[in-house]
Amino acid sequence: MPTPTEELRRRIVADINAGAPGTKLGSERDLSEHYGTSRSSLRQVLAALEEAGLVDRVIGRAGGIFISHAQVQRSLSDVVGVPAFLANQGYVAGTRVLSTRITAPDRATQHALNLTAEDFVVEIQRVRLADGSPISLELAQFPADAFPGLLEQQLGGSIYEMLESRYGLVTARADERIEAVNATPEEATLLGIKPKSALLLITRVTYDQNETPCEFSRDLFRGDRTRLAVTVQGRGIGVQPAVDTASVALQSQTTKAS
After folding, report:
1. Which CATH superfamily is domain 72-229 in?
2. Is 100 helix (H, G, I), strand (E, B) or coil?
3. How many angstroms separate the CA atoms of 196 and 191, rounded?
4. Which GO terms are recorded in the biological process aspect for this UniProt protein (predicted)?
């Protein structure tokens, strides 16, 4: 049973998720009446939300409480789980496991994980939260033969950390492709946004210490809450590029016949 303070925080975060950045939630007086709470309790929760970057408090006649939606930064230079990079930025990470199953891989998964149509994969779909607010929708697949009993493990935290401690696997590198897409109605509902909102689709193949593909995932990050960062090395004329490089590829535009 959540405490009154936690319940108040959840209600405000839910309203923040339903709004757009820059929207005014109201004045302290308005909000205390709306949520049926004291000004002191409200200020305590608002102070925590402001520190987390979810709201801005503006003083003055035209002031009030505004939705901020601070962006989460995801580095393209490191292979780390979502809880790790959220914690490094001061967020409280959370997870909702939506579904798990053992299923046959489709052709894209077969190609990514070097599997055949007779093999099976463990599929895990989760919503990732930052300070209680949904930021990403994950669909990850793992070779079932390589990870027996995977669905019996705790799946609410970092799967990378669990794979290392339980199966001795170390994530050595990942190949990622990034696309801008629009949210479907189902994705929008799960992420607390409007349909057709901008999303970043990150398709990833992760390799272990033996250069064996161990994960194929499709992550959808909210475009209004995420920015990408990458560190690249400069090089002079005649210097060969490093093996680990980052690139941006433009999607070819196809013309439909009229």
Report:
1. Chorismate lyase-like (3.40.1410.10)
2. strand
3. 12
4. negative regulation of DNA-templated transcription
Q: What is the largest CA-CA distance in the chain?
A: 68
Directed axis angle between helix 28-35 and helix 39-51, to 10°? 110
User: What pLDDT does 157 receive?
Assistant: 83
Q: In this structure, which amino acid lies at residue 142?
A: F
Taking the chain (258 residues) in runs of 10, the rounded mean pLDDT of each run is: 83 77 86 93 87 76 76 53 60 86 96 96 92 87 96 88 91 88 93 88 92 94 76 62 48 42
Evaluate whether 139 touches 217 at the Cβ level (below 8 Å): yes
Q: How many helices (H) and strands (E) does the chain have?
A: 7, 11
Sorted by where each begins, the domain ranges of the chain are 4-67, 72-229
Angle, vertex CA 132, rays to CA 36 and CA 216, nearest 5: 160
Distance CA 34, CA 68 (A): 20
Q: Is 219 exposed, middle or buried (0-12, 13-18, 19+ CB in 10 A)?
A: buried
Q: Rounded to a whole number, what is the distance in angstroms from the first to the last CA of the chain?
A: 59
- Cβ-contact 180, 226 below 8 angstroms: no
- In this prediction, residue 233 carries a pLDDT of 63
pTM: 0.63
CA of residue 233 relative to chain centroid, distance: 27
Closest CA to 218 of 181, 165, 166: 181
Q: DSSP letters of 166-188? A: HH---EEEEEEEEEEEE--HHHH
Contacts of 134 (CB under 8 A, 6+ apart): 17, 127, 128, 190, 191, 192, 222
